[in-house]
Fold this sequence. Notes:
This protein is of the alpha+beta class.
Amino acid sequence: MNGWSEGWNDGSAPDDGARVMPHVQRRAGSYGGYAQPPQPSQGEPPLPPELSPRRAAASRGGVPRQGMADGGGTTYRAGRGPGGPGGPGGPGSGRGRVRRPRSWRRRIGWTALTLVVVLAVTSVATYFWADSKLTRTIDLSALPDRPALGKGTNYLIAGSDNRGNLTPQQQQALHVGSDNEGQYGNSDTMMILHVGSNGDTLVSLPRDSYVTIPAFTGATGTHYPATKHKLNVAFSWGGGQLLAQTVEYNTGIHIDHYAEIGFGGFVNLVNTLGGVNMCLSKPMVDQASGANFKAGCQTFNGSQALSFVRERHQEANQDLGREQHQQQFLQAVAHQTETPGVLLNPFKLYPVLGAGLETLNVDKGMSLYDLAQMMFAMKDVSGGNGKSMVVPVGDPNYYTATDGDALLWDKTKAQQLFSELQNDQQVTVSGN
């Protein structure tokens, strides 16, 4: 029993009266909207009952394809059941929907892209933030009679004892006194850092070095002739500008960049780092600088660090002893700044960067890249991949009528050292 009349197989219409579908209502004489019942095409045999659209759809567990009649006048559309929305196969029934598989590869790609964009934006923002912290005042391009451009990069690093940004209470606590010699104060630290293809070299220039201060024009426009004085007098008279001119004049080295840090900034940087670890081979006591340290490894805060780098009364040669302390400490600062605890911790990195950059006075051509190169070179020197020395000294107790005790460079060795640095050659000279 298939529900169809026998006459269907010979081309006659089904007996509609004998087959009433409860869910389909037709008007009298209507055949699915046609005046006459559908007839098979000429030359095509009629479909057997088992291949009728309804039977075929039922055997697949679905509905006929779009536009296909069920033989009873009802046309099925794709994704919709005979009852319309909500019916079998219709919207809301869950049938007929094709769900795409989740693409984890696409999600990972979007996540990676988002991270790259965030890092790029953060890096650019950090660059402009850090660049705005630098104070650029020294114009090296304006120096007269400059040596020829050398090979490699030469940095002149100075430490200023200017007390202008310190209160009287801070001056007393830091044991720096309150007197300033000249408009710019003095410089306790003067070093040439050479970065080149034959390794990095850090050369200290003692502040008591007796040198020629070349002719220069002061801030008021007054012209001063060349004269002989201690090296730190050049800084006292003309700040970093005249100091750079004097160093170039006496060494023949082209200074590419200049960096200066003052007392207040020095103390603030060390405290922001959380102190600097230092190891002393013997106790150190100096009432003038406030140094009072035991032998062994210990952590210096800002005030203690300043006392250490200014101490000069414990060594037989005061000025040379202080130069060695300063080199030792600057190398320790450079090494500690690059530790993962600082570089990988934004809550530590940004305060350290801010403290260091805000207290620097650099030349107008100094970029953040140049500054980073300087710090990496300092780390290389402290790690044994470079050379640290004091300029060769011939007479450490040379007496002058105007400046008292001073020291003279060993002219032959010093000239050889400066020539090797200017030409980026392997340093063969040993210093004091």
